[in-house]
Amino acid sequence: MKFEDFWYVVALSKQLKSNQVLSRQVLGEWLAIFRTKNGKPVALQDRCTHRNSRLSCGKVQQGYLQCPYHGWVYDESGGVVSIPSEGENFKPRASLKAKQYHTCEQDGFIYVCLTEEIKPQFSPFSMPYYQQPGWHYVRVVHRFNNNVTNCAENFIDIPHTVSVHPGIFRKSYQQKLEMTVTRTQGTVIANYHNEDTNLGWWTRFLNPSHHKIYHSDRFFMPNITSVEYQFAPRRHLFITSQSVPETETSTLVYTDATFSYGIWSYLAIPFVWYTAKRIIGQDVKILQIQQEVIEKYGEKFAHTQADTIHVFVESIRKAIAQGKDPRTLPDKTVEVTFWV
């Protein structure tokens, strides 16, 4: 198993218009993304086989991609279907072919899988309640100067919220939390048992009646985190992030805040958008600082009991990096108590 075997978001569906080409990078690979005449997304290696120009700098006409340097034209399979300098003497050659990658479109995202297998063994992650009746979502995109592991861990890390998001998400270290953390089948699940209303300025809106809170954080290999809060039958929230590895130190994160707040759902949209941008913006800054220290001193972490969820995530990511299947790791459950 390799990181290339999984699906990664390369664009929002609405970003990829007809007769348009997008430049993207996943796991260090340069990609040229466009649509065929029928609207199907295509991903080719961003390299012309002729004189090594960038295909993403070219143009799309009737579902074909033309190189900006000498005008060579590529179809959806990466095959060269026209060489202007050869005119009517042009004949297709099997040797003239740009590398093509698997693509699909789901939940308003364009996905690419870099596997060399004929068919990917996994499917893209299904976003919770996407466009389901009674549910709304806010979608935001941020670039982090850090790796996928550190980004994913940050998104499901409670202890940092008091320091990084004071007042917005937590107030102070005043509550004792109990957490059950389980690693199983390439996932990490953290369930919290006694969380109250220490949610900063969210409290009045999310849980005005002080209902018992259901809170669960999940990590799905290799790069998905999903935070779930349920405060009452009509107060339900998911924060789901897909961390896309552009390079070893650049991660593009697509985040959906999906919610069902009953009659207040439409009014909540601008509030959710503003809060998501504010919180994630603060995380961008703190992870930038972390990366600067890592570059100078190396990635050496000291772990406490509250970091159990990080240890499990790292074990899964490490297994994939070593070419192993994380689903073969032994199931493990740890009971944790910490303050937040």
TrEMBL record:
Gene Ontology terms, MF aspect = 2 iron, 2 sulfur cluster binding; metal ion binding; monooxygenase activity; oxidoreductase activity, acting on paired donors, with incorporation or reduction of molecular oxygen
UniProt domain Rieske: residue ranges = 7-112
User: Does the keyword section mention Metal-binding?
Assistant: yes
InterPro entries under this entry? Cholesterol_7-desaturase (IPR050584), Rieske_2Fe-2S (IPR017941), Rieske_2Fe-2S_sf (IPR036922), VanA_C_cat (IPR044043)
* Gene3D superfamilies per UniProt: Naphthalene 1,2-dioxygenase Alpha Subunit, Chain A, domain 1, Rieske [2Fe-2S] iron-sulphur domain
Family matches, as CDD domains: Rieske_RO_Alpha_N
Q: Which UniProt keywords apply?
A: 2Fe-2S, Iron, Iron-sulfur, Metal-binding, Oxidoreductase
Q: What is this protein called?
A: Rieske 2Fe-2S domain-containing protein
- Taxon lineage: Bacteria, Bacillati, Cyanobacteriota, Cyanophyceae, Oscillatoriophycideae
